[in-house]
Fold each of these.
Amino acid sequence: MPLSPDQQAEIEELRSNPQQTLRAVAPGMEKHLYKAIDVLDHGFVRVIDYMGDDAAICQAARVSYGKGTKSVQNDEGLIRYLMRHWHSTPFEMCEIKLHVKLPVFVARQWIRHRTANVNEYSARYSILDREFYIPAPDQLAAQSVINNQGRGEALTGDEAARVLEYLKADSNRAYDHYEQMISDDGQQGLARELARMNLPANIYTQWYWKVDLHNLFHFLRLRADAHAQYEIRVYAEAICAIAADWVPFAYRAFEDYRMGGATLSATALDCIRRMVKGETVTQENSGMSKGEWREFEATLNAG
Ligand SMILES: Cc1cc2nc3c(=O)[nH]c(=O)nc-3n(C[C@H](O)[C@H](O)[C@H](O)COP(=O)(O)OP(=O)(O)OC[C@H]3O[C@@H](n4cnc5c(N)ncnc54)[C@H](O)[C@@H]3O)c2cc1C
């Protein structure tokens, strides 16, 4: 279980003490506050705090003295307009603070998103738990033969069993040595900041991650995408569900224009215009490379 009974009790206590406030409150988000959503085998995402809602985006866009809301229909229309025209700063008026528990190799991908504020659990100060990400059997896949940066068919039989055994045994052996090195029982005990260096990248770490809605959407666009590695994608998908409850208009616009939409080059757009006029366009007469054409066809045939 990702959360201990003590941690669960702390969450219940926080949730049992609501405060009256004059600040904007998003009802969809209130139900998420503090609760942990399980991700992978020991990880989670939970909302620690947030600022703003759909109305706050409109309020900022209109530089309003009041709530910024004209009517529900008007607000959704305005948010869609802002998203469509890349008028991004009103989305930056909303913020979210998450507590995330994740394997170190996922954290390495996540931390590349520089436009967020992060504070990570200190393994110089604290002792890491014996918690390692071990993939479920259906995620234990072979190297993809199509995509160098991905996985293909799931491993089977003896090979799958052997790989699982290596992952578990290596993780535990490294942790046993970590414990032995930091122990001060009959020895000086190695500093935690040094002992951690033999721990594998599937050990779990934790951080607080605060980001504005514009940059959150950018993160989700890249990491909830089918091209993202499964282990970060499942975190992004959990956050997508939270964002959909928090800012439903903005999330719907994001789904429509960014997640479900596509960016086309001038050449690709020209091909579509020619197709609409009835011309037979092929890779050879498209002006695109084979790779571009393959992706263009995939875009047209998706869904
Ligand atoms: C499928 C996939 C595969 C990837 N593969 C690799 C890989 O093989 N190797 C690798 O190293 N990385 C890889 N990455 C990471 C990728 O290159 C980006 O570093 C990561 O997605 C963060 O994106 P970002 O810089 O747009 O986000 P953020 O850092 O959040 O930045 C958001 C935006 O702010 C602006 N910005 C922020 N900081 C700066 C700056 N210093 N200068 C200029 N503009 C800035 C940019 O417009 C940027 O798009 C991969 C990412 C994905 C999604």
Note: The pocket of flavin-adenine dinucleotide is lined by residues 112-115, 215, 218, 222, 227-228 (CB under 6 Å).
Amino acid sequence: MPHPTRRIFLQTSLTAMAAITGLPHFSRSSMGGEISSAPPKPSFPVADYHVHLSEHLSIDQAVALGKERGIQVGILEHPGPGYPINTDADLKRYIDGLRPFPVRIGLQPVYPGWSKAFSKPLLDQLDYILMDALTMPKPDGGWLAIWQIDTMVDDAEEFMTRYLAFIEQVLTTEPIDIFGWPTFLPVPIARQYSELWTHARMQRIVDLARARKIAIEINEVAHVPDETFITRAKQAGLKFTFGTDSRTPQSAMHFYYCYQMAQKCGLTAADMFVVNKK
Ligand SMILES: [Zn+2]
């Protein structure tokens, strides 16, 4: 299908963001360069629940990489317009195609209301659902993809109000097990992370996730959420997952930020969300 993948946007926007903002946490080592003092792999079983298969990453490669690195693999695909899974038949083919492999099978919906396109028994066959709040409905219709480099934010406070409302929608009305890319901010306001993510706003996400036992993804590519959020979520009893959001063998099952946060925030096996095979 000749549409640009999210990954292309991600790479463009994150590389550009690192160049523009000079964010200290976008270190070369974590962007694929040489790692001099990598944080240790945690002692608990590690999973990468955010792996996308692609022309560069086959299921066999993903399984082999997982085995090599001692990491459980979770595969995601997007349903909805512009993506490969739109009908029950598509979804069944996807699930049946992955079942023979020792991976967890997930779905990463993009648009609210996505689950209405599929029958409940089929959705129940999925091992998990991860959704982010990166594709925001615009007030005048259409969608704002906030991971894109050219995302414009005229008024940071107004944006945060709309963003929080959309996060609330995602966390309260959709079938969801893991909240992906939590607290990610678009490029123009990324440097204001600590001011914009006030105590109250962070707490709102923590409370919503706790109410439905939704796990929090620590996202390797976006380096979110930050240590403050993770610590607060941990204190509230939330569980976490690690995700590379990868489509290549170079990035799949390759953690730096996640291990660093695990170390800094003292995450243990008890803090991790485990996806079971159905
Ligand atoms: Zn993804």
Note: Residues 50, 52, 76, 108, 245 surround zinc ion (CB under 6 Å).
Amino acid sequence: MTVAAVARRSPAAAAGLTPGDRIVAVNGHPLRDAIDFQFHAGDERLELTVEREGAARSTRLRRRGPGLGLELAPPRPSDIATCANKCVFCFIHQLPKGMRRSLYVKDDDFRLSFLHGNYITLSDLDEASFERIIEQRLSPLYISVHATDPELRHALLGRPRHSAEILPRLERLAKAGIRMHAQIVLCPDLNDGAHLARTVHELAPLYPHVSTTAIVPVGLTRHRERLPALRSLAPDEAQALVTTAEGWQRRWLAELGSRFVFLADEIYLLAGLPLPPGASYEGFPIAEDGIGLVRRFEDGFQRSVARRQKRRARPDAITVVTGELFAPRLSGLLVHAGYAADTIRVAAVPNDFFGPAIGVAGLLTGRDIQRHLARQPEVGRRVLVPAVAVRDADGIFLDDVTPADLARDLGVPVTVVQPTPGALLRAIRDS
Ligand code: SF4
């Protein structure tokens, strides 16, 4: 594991570690990856074997709290386990050619599932990996289920070489005490209706080991060339799904003590229905999958506004960028908070790059934002763009445009804003 950064006055700094060092063993245990490091580095006294400029040395380190002040470099794309599936809805297959290479990595790596909440299919998981998950108690894991009917799942995954049967794999992990979050990418006419009912009813007996099941709508871009025909969820289907899911939730709340099945925010927005209250999300365990993010943001926004009411001065005119799905709700929140719509303008940017079926802020490109704002009569003194549209590690939009490029083209400063109510209100106040 390569050291990426060392905090000042931390145990790692005291042990003489510097960025670029390679930690090859902890207390005599060789390291395969960051999980091995976490697994073996829990003791108070650690002996690290470190390589620097080709020479190995030993260093002792004593923890004084939970952190060591050490940041490890992320895995290189070549170290990530990738899938051999060809899922009919795979978003990566729907990317246009010529984007940066890292976007085409089809990761299906249990280590990234444990560390970062990436969803995996388990279809290529070998025996050694199963044993490692169980031995190191890598829990929770995030599992792409899609359907429990073996033949249907096999078809959805693009007919991989091996059987893709999921229930025996989930049962094995459940028996070993591994907690899992299941996901279903809902494709109308393929795994909806009776198939969906079968899937959730076959997963529910695995509760609490399978602790949640997220239903998210398939996302279709305009670049679906030579791929199976699919269609997006229609608003009336989204409404019917909300009614069905509410029935399941009532039943499982009574039987299991949890709603167990949760619908993506996108489904409520598409249906034009109110989002469930915050308590219905049972602590928001899968918010990163788009389950409850909008509710959490809206509730947090109301609280932040109430706290800041007295200190709020009239801000300069600015533009807040978001996707078409969330824009009406964000406008409503700002107006309700007392910001005039002509002062804080919400730009609902259409997604020309991926196509009209993609309405979320996280998939906006720099050029779409630039094109849309250039057509507006005025953008004000500053433009706020959502951080979810900018890749964390490299600070660029999906199409390699940077916020600085955008600022130069628009002629006003551009601020990247984290997706929290406090960050948005601060950015508005400071504009
Ligand atoms: S598992 Fe399916 S959706 Fe995920 S990367 Fe592989 S082909 Fe794409």
Note: The mean pLDDT is 92.
